[in-house]
Amino acid sequence: MFRFLGFNFSVEMLFSLILIGLLGSASNLTPVSGKECTNTPTKLSPHFPHNLLLSFKGGNKHTTNNGHLHLNHAQSKTWMDLLPPQHTSISPEEKENRELDWAMLYRKINKAGNSDGIESRFLKEFSLHDVHLDPNKSAQGRAQQTNLEYLLLLNVDSLVWSFRKQAGLDTPGVPYGGWEGPEIEIRGHFVGHYMSATAKMWASTHNSTLKSKMDHLVDALHSCQKKIDSGYLSAFPSEFFDRFEAIQPVWAPYYTIHKIMAGLLDQYLYVKNEQALKMVIGMAQYFENRVRNVISKDTIERHWESLNEETGGMNDVLYDLYTITRNPKHLVLAHLFDKPCFLGLLALQADSLSGFHVNTHIPIIIGAQKRYEITGDPLYKVIGTYFMDAVNSSHSYATGGTSVSEFWYDPNHLAETLTTETEESCTTYNMLKVSRNLFKWTKEMAYVDYYERALTNGVLSIQRGREPGKMIYMLPLGRGASKAASFHGWGTPFNSFWCCYGTGIESFSKLGDSIYFEEENEDGRLGLYIVQFVSSSLTWKSLGIVVNQQVHPVQSFNPYLHVKITFFSLPEASTTNTTTPSSYLNIRIPFWTKLHGAKATLNDKNLPIPNPGEFLMVSNKWSANDQLLLKLPLELRIEKLKDKRSEYQSIKAILFGPYLLAGLSKGDWEINIGSAKSVSDWIEPIPSDLNAQLVSFTQQSEKNKEEILILTNSNNTLKMTSLFQYGTDAVIHATFRLIQSTLSNNKSNKNEFVIEPFDLPGATVVHQGRGKPLKISTSGTSNESSSLFSIVDMQEDPLMKVVALESVSKPGCFICGYADKKVKLDCGKAMEKSKFSIFQGAREYNPISFVAKGAQRNFVLEPLMSLRDESYTVYFNISAASV
Predict the structure, then answer these.
(1) What confidence category does residue 548 fall into, taking pLDDT thresholds of 50, 70 and 90?
(2) Cα–Cα distances in Å, from 462 out to 466, 654, 873?
(3) Where is the Non-reducing end beta-L-arabinofuranosidase-like GH127 catalytic domain (predicted)?
(4) Domain shared by 529 and 668, yes or no
């Protein structure tokens, strides 16, 4: 064991730390400063190994052969030269033992890529070809279908326009705008994402039109690469890399190259496009030459420094390429994109994330995880595990997302970060990859619990309903936030193409990749892990069966998750075998449920339910039409914001099972729960039959007979406003609930109602006397009858129902709309102004809806994922009664 920086290290661990550049200058032996390791290039810093080697060997940067600095230990002498100098006080025997250990370690490292069967211990992924989502039976299925429609909308000539321009080819069509515009330095990145997304979407759906489109795209890019004739392929000139290597301003060229290489690789992996593989190999050769040139002409430090610019997941895609080619050059190049200073801090398990650009660094972690899978080096498992734990414990929100204005903030100090620019969508996409890898390695429930949380609330929230090509960059979490009101707002299908558009189309193309996993245990039996509850079917080829999972839509007033799992034989399976070999299921019992009320049966026989956070294991020889039923209670709960300061302990989010609930609010967030002992004491579900009580009222404009106006709550005063776009606050404010009166002494009149605004449960429309505006009372009124109105059927239009709203306390006086769009109570001669067409409410309650009792007003709570442009509040100031 070596002791260094106050830590004990084995030879293997010390070597790993050296390789990631943890060790600092040999002159002072201090670790690399985290603040020198950023996403903004800084002055050259004393990163290992260059300066450390020079101190050990007395060399200088101009004369030292840098060939060994990038981990390509082709000669044992070069490897032995890396052995740190031995202190003169050690014995010859100890010196000999250390040299022997170092030589043996070389022999181990020299077999790079041999992970000694470590992957056999991981859970295995099912191909997207084998998992099918029903587009009509789940939020995931609908999101996938919406994304497919968008992918089919995009034009290949427009996508590759800048690639052709750069290659000197003809440029038919018109280039897209946004970040794919011909003048934008990052152009081409979305094309890489598009290749990945279409490959995964085709594997998921086998849509033939999509297959033709992506084949055409790869062919077009191949023509560009062939014309350039160097292996280089991009939508921008190679001179961008001259600036990158000179540490001059340029917008993340390697970020774009990563996307292009990953897209081509996915076209090979999912579609078996051999040409795409040849293209990405050519690109790898080109960039290997560039990196080697930087190191040989300058120093490896210059290369490390350049990694402070965002490079995407270059290490990740190169490790993936190595698993296919087994070319050690690809492994070496992957190592060279492992950002040493960042990984070194995590290796010491130091949370120095604050101030780092989030989406620059999560992909580096994903690459480090791939390095562990390939080499078996345990340090990279430690790095990935610690990183996930640090983000989850100190830097994440109730959505599962992380970042504010694209950066990490101080750990457990998130109160100030609740803004419109909270949570970049790209970061959630990448965190899902980190958690997925960790679950495959460990089978620990926490990682799939996180995956469900982040996918449900952080990913499914970024589409604007079923509108193809409408996505957001940021998912705002501030008070009174709206997805439409961040800096970027909603993107457009053909003129945005932000980074989060690229990760968005990938996310919605691979929604089937983390529902099921397979393992083979020590006795050779196969096991199936079901870790996400999504209506889907799995073709389990190893057993020759189809596993069909049907999940009943969740409803707040029936708080149970109902899952039905049915087994079928594959058509091509032998008809002589009616059962499969013995195998087992491991079904996730999530942390958010409870044992009381939970139930599981297999063919009507009860199964024992384990505690939440464990797996329900069922062994069986599966037969056609075997059926497993699972019933899990969903509970309301509150979660504190990750902020350890005492003054912020009351800031909390409200969740229902995996769903983060948002209150329909433009900024109100005060909830006083008094002496309530349970969340259910101050939050109640909204039954679905209340949708039948929701109405909207319209009138023809007096000024413009072709304009239709709608009755609206505008800042607690009624007005007539123009019609609205669905999914906005205007829809909510134009929807009211008619509640049959219990105030009137006239028991026989069933047409007397209280009018309640949709988003203000318990509030009522009240009049203030003849000729005065009508207002909304959120705290009741001394004259209860002022909130009571009678519905008078005018029977004038056979195509729609026309009514008048008569005050019960002032008979003959009606709610009237006027030319200036004001709404008042008027009597007698104003009958024409009192006629309203009444319709089913413009808005309905979500099936998962609740009413939370607030301090000054009540809140309608709905899943964040269901909202579009509506204003909402995710975190509430929830306080108890003062003592």
Answers:
(1) very high
(2) 11, 20, 16
(3) 138-513
(4) no
Residue 5 is assigned to a structural domain of this protein: no
417 Cβ contact partners less than 8 Å away, ≥ 6 residues apart: 404, 409
pLDDT, one tens digit per residue, over 440-476 is: 999 999 999 999 999 999 999 999 999 999 999 999 9
pLDDT higher than 90, residue 64: no
**Six token digits for residue 590:** 């999530």
Return the biggest CA–CA distance within the chain: 113
Instruction: Tell me what the mean pLDDT of segment 262-268 comes to.
Output: 98
96 is in which domain, residue-wise?
A: 16-109
Bridge partner residues of 551 (DSSP): 563
Question: How many whole angstroms separate alpha carbon 833 and alpha carbon 94?
Answer: 101
692 close to 672: Cβ distance less than 8 angstroms: no
> Do 200 and 250 sit in the same domain of this protein?
yes
- On whether residue 11 sits in a domain, the answer given is no
Find where tokens 């795209």 sit: 217
Instruction: Return the CATH number at 736.
Output: 2.80.10.50
- Tell me the per-residue pLDDT of 811-862, one tens digit each, with 9 for 90 and over: 999 999 987 788 999 987 667 789 999 999 999 999 999 999 999 999 999 9
- CATH at 568: 2.60.40
Q: Please answer whether residues 855 and 671 qualify as being in contact, where contact means their C-beta atoms are separated by less than 8 angstroms.
A: yes
DSSP state for residue 87 in the 8-state scheme: P
Q: What is the CATH number of the domain that holds 225?
A: 1.50.10
247 plus 358 within the same structural domain: yes
Residue 659 confidence (pLDDT) above 60 = yes
Please report the pLDDT score of residue 46 as a whole number.
28
| Residue closest to 323 by CA, chosen among 485, 161, 115, 11 | 115
pLDDT-wise least confident of 5-9, 316-320, 688-692, 800-804: 5-9
Asked if the structure places residue 7 within a domain, the reply is: no
Please indicate, yes or no, whether residues 602 and 699 belong to a single structural domain of this protein. no
HSE-CB for 655 with a 13 A CA cutoff:
23
User: Which secondary structure element, helix H or strand E, spans residue 8, and what is its range?
Assistant: strand 7-9
Same domain for 718 and 657: no
Residue 206 lies in a domain: yes
Residue with structure tokens 């430690």?
A: 382
CA distance from start to end of the chain: 58
Give tens-digit pLDDT for 336-347.
999 988 999 899
Residue 187 is which amino acid? R
d(CA 651, CA 233): 49
CA 230 to chain centre: 37
In this prediction the pTM is 0.88
What are the two backbone dihedrals, phi and then psi, of residue 440, each rounded to the nearest 5 degrees? Answer: -60, -35
Amino acid at residue number 871: S
CA distance 694 to 705: 27
- What's the domain count of the chain? 5
Sign of the CA dihedral with 857 first, then 860, 866, and 867 last: negative
Same domain (yes/no): 693, 664: no
How would DSSP label each residue in 26-41?
TTT--PPPGGGSSSS-
What are the phi and psi torsion angles at 139 (to 5°)? -60, -35
487-498 per-residue burial string, b: 16 or more CB within 10 A, e: under 16:
eebbbebbebbb
- Which tokens is 778 given? 């959120």
Helix (H) / strand (E) containing 287: helix 274-297
Question: How many CB atoms are located within 10 Å of the residue 277 CB?
Answer: 18
- Does residue 757 share a domain with residue 682? no
